[in-house]
Amino acid sequence: MSTDTATREAREAREAREAHDAAMRTYLREGEARAYALGNRGPVRRTADGRIHPDILEAYWRCGFYVFEGVLSKAELTEIDADIRGNVLERLPVRHDATVDALGRPAIGVGHEAPTLFWSKPLADPFGGTTLANGRHPVKMHEPTAAADAPEEIVYLILGPLQFSETHLRVYGHPDLLAVAAAVNGDDFVPFNEALFIKAPGLGASVAWHRDGVTHWDSPDWDEGTHGFNFMAQVYGCTPANGVWVVPGTHKMRRVDIKAMCAAAGSERLPEAVPIICAPGDVAITNRQAVHGSFANTSPDWRLTLNLGFHRRRSVLGVTGGGIHAAPAVFDEARIRERARVIGYGIDARRQRFPDETPFVYRPHAEAGPSYRWDEAARATMKDYNRLDLSI
User: Fold this and answer.
1) How far apart are CA 17 and CA 347, in angstroms?
2) Does CATH number 3.40.1550.10 belong to domain 38-318?
């Protein structure tokens, strides 16, 4: 290659990056304005009889997501930050095939039967345009170039995090969040799965546009809530640059062609999408059927998201699982009861730490028992608890 050719190609590459960055800045700014115009954010509010306010449920079902503001206090966030950093992030393997962390201690996530740690190159899109996860991420997102000193690989997602983090378990037992779960999915709601998303500045991987759920799409009783929802509790907050984006209303659609949507837009910047914007301590609820995704985190801001997923019982009971988060199996009463013990542990763990709160009463446990106590014996049973995830 001649010097002139190399110089020209370098200039063209630089101009392409600059054009992409300028378009992205405009997209982020316009998306933020669209997000704040939706009217789907505010504190958890209840009616006089203690139920979640119907205005919140109306906005959630209209948009496919809602931002609950100020759910977690500054004091709780401080505890979560210390716990996640000290007991999770600093205990990760130094590389995907290692068994020790950076200090030579036994690393977490090693020797598990259930899927636990997910690795990626910095700023990459490991799922987009592949057949992974049943091919539900059909379009690869833009992959920026990471800094020269960036690590070769990063952990961007941890499944089954409640076995590693007690503060995450306490958030899982939050009475307001469980009350929302009951309002959306019924008093006999059941778990789906839990996750910890790590979006480090200049490193965090993207998650290509997709819809969750691989079952029920052709069921005659399918509706806008069939595949459940995820809570996303934000430790540091999230911005248009590092947060999840949602295409409002797509949770109501049985069929969506994401590849065609991106082709019509001319890029992965879907014009109808809006970012989920949160302050530290806010918790968003997102319908799993909505088209959603996130861009690589080239911003200077951390995002650490505690994911908590829930289903309707009738969407799960007697159904053969989709096989993405756990091996395919028929979800019977015994499987659901065993997986739902984590709800009991979460409620009790939170009761012990926050005795002035009124604990949530989970109807299936109140009606049939047993009661659940969070202690060392319970903690010892948590390894690979997510092999029983109720993935549909």
Assistant:
1) 49
2) no
